[in-house]
Amino acid sequence: MSARPTILLTATAAAVLVFLQLPVIVVALSSFTETSYLTFPPQGFTLRWFGSVLTDPDWLSAIGFSLGLALLATLTSMVLGTAAAYAISRRLLPGSDAIASFLMAPLVFPAVVIGVALLQFYAHLGWRGNFFALVASHVVLTSPYVVRACLSSLAGVGTDLEEAAGTLGAGGFTAFRLVTLPLLKPGLVAGGFFSFITSLDNVPVTIFLLGPGQSTLPVKIFTAIDQGGVDPGLAAISTILILLTGAALAIAERWVGFSRFV
Amino acid sequence: MSGPFKGVGLASPLLLVLLGLFLAPVLLMLPQSLHEYIPGTGTSEAWTLQNYTRLLTDDYYREIIGRTLWMGSLVTFLCFLLGYPLAYFMARTTPAWRAAATLLVIFPLFLNLVVRSFGWITLLANRGVVNNLLMDIGLIDSPIKMLFNMTGLVIGLTHIYLPFMVLMLLTAIQNVPRDVEQAAATLAASKLRIFFTITLPLTAPGILAGSILVFVLTISALVTPRLLGGPAYKVMATLIYDEFMQKLDWPSGTSFAFILTAITLLIIWGAGRVARKWSGGLA
């Protein structure tokens, strides 16, 4: 039997792939328009909108806030997630499967429900607008990705290497650090990348927890479109995000062959 | 330290974060939903189920629940319809093409949700790319309304959740043993027959898993329905958002959040039962 995809199948697949890139292409191209309103195809070519966004202190502070939040949430998720995944994978505690399911639950649980639940919880405790409380709420959303990637990596790493290291006199943590951790690296990088993107992307939880004067990049774009509609400045900031995402994806792919972990 | 102590020590920090900032806040919302909202003062002292009965009997709210579930069904079906051919192509093509296609599938997945919805506004608006194109080539005389209605929501959400479906289906199709298909081919079965009697049924668990994931994510989506549907065309998640942020009616919003959660959990539980039944049938 011939295994090659037929022309019809190839054409359909290509059309679906184009559909997937469509909004990206439109946003990126329309950010170069010379008109003051958003139009496609763009009229003329200018980098003015990039300049105006990148010199606006409000946008810069939102970018900084988002990056700091995503970085802290990701680092915390990687430490806590790796430890928990190790305990689950090595069956160090009873009910490992139930615990794993619970740790993955935020992946399918309605995010908006987590958002309003934390809004009431934080409002009660006076934590609304607290940066570290926001980081902790993002750990809830991002840690499942680290746990999942680490569990899948650990499944392929037997205990015999750590035991061999133990025989050679390495203590538990030394053996983990020198033997298991390097083997976990691809999974950790992939999980960390997912975690970072998830935090950077989040609106449905973040929007309920921000204090006055605080804004993350996606919440700021969301609110701007929701209240005032679209303009070329928003297209420019979106294009910057598109380029950063593309670059990060390319680096992660070259570094660890990341598409294996999706 | 060894055994259970070590395990508890390693797992408890993350477990505590999830118990404290996920499970507890969700459960602690329950009392809130059982009080009446009094504008200006807050909530009543008396306990009541009226938030739930109102949401389930009032036509306005029932329409929103129905619309949300219909939207979830349409998006799930379209994701399957568009996703299967792509996943099938990826499973059967050369490794190099598969890697390239995988990157094109996950790139939009990682791109900011707000940015992707923004792209669809540009495409679907009355003076947007799609309408201009259709009018230029003379297919239509006046713009087709594709924003602030079901059409826009379904297109935007299909785009957003399609990558999840493709990745689930790809794994399922790759797991179909090729020798079964080859055996059928040896017995002179046509390609279509092989597909419908072998490949499709063997990928059913993957189709189920992908569909459940897409459905559950679609009915709880907030950003895309809000941006493509506007403030007036509401679904469950945007209604919850408005109850909390605009109307400040927290009891109502909380009750609606629990109804959305109940639907989600019920679907996941039901799908789990079906999946177990299928795997039980095979063993």
Automatic annotation (TrEMBL), chain A:
Q: How does it sit in the membrane?
A: Multi-pass membrane protein
CDD domains given for it? TM_PBP2
Q: Where in the cell is it found?
A: Cell inner membrane; Cell membrane
State if Chaperone is listed as a keyword.
Answer: no
Every ABC transmembrane type-1 domain range = 63-253
- Keywords assigned: Cell inner membrane, Cell membrane, Membrane, Transmembrane, Transmembrane helix, Transport
**SUPFAM superfamilies this protein is in?**
MetI-like
| Stretches that traverse the bilayer | 59-88, 100-123, 187-213, 233-252
Q: Which family does it belong to?
A: Belongs to the binding-protein-dependent transport system permease family.
Give the protein name, as stated in the record.
Answer: ABC transporter permease
UniProtKB/TrEMBL annotation, chain B:
Pfam families reported in the protein's UniProt record = BPD_transp_1
Task: Report whether Membrane shows up as a keyword of the record.
Answer: yes
Q: Which family does it belong to?
A: Belongs to the binding-protein-dependent transport system permease family. CysTW subfamily.
Q: Which residues cross the membrane?
A: 70-91, 103-126, 146-173, 194-223, 255-275
Do the record's keywords include Transmembrane helix?
yes
Keywords from UniProt, A to Z, are:
Cell membrane, Membrane, Transmembrane, Transmembrane helix, Transport
PROSITE patterns (UniProt xref): ABC_TM1
Species of provenance: Leisingera daeponensis
- Membrane topology note: Multi-pass membrane protein
Q: Residues in domain ABC transmembrane type-1?
A: 65-271
- Enumerate the SUPFAM superfamilies for this protein: MetI-like (SSF161098)
Q: Which locations, inside or outside the cell, does it occupy?
A: Cell membrane
Q: What is this protein called?
A: ABC transporter permease
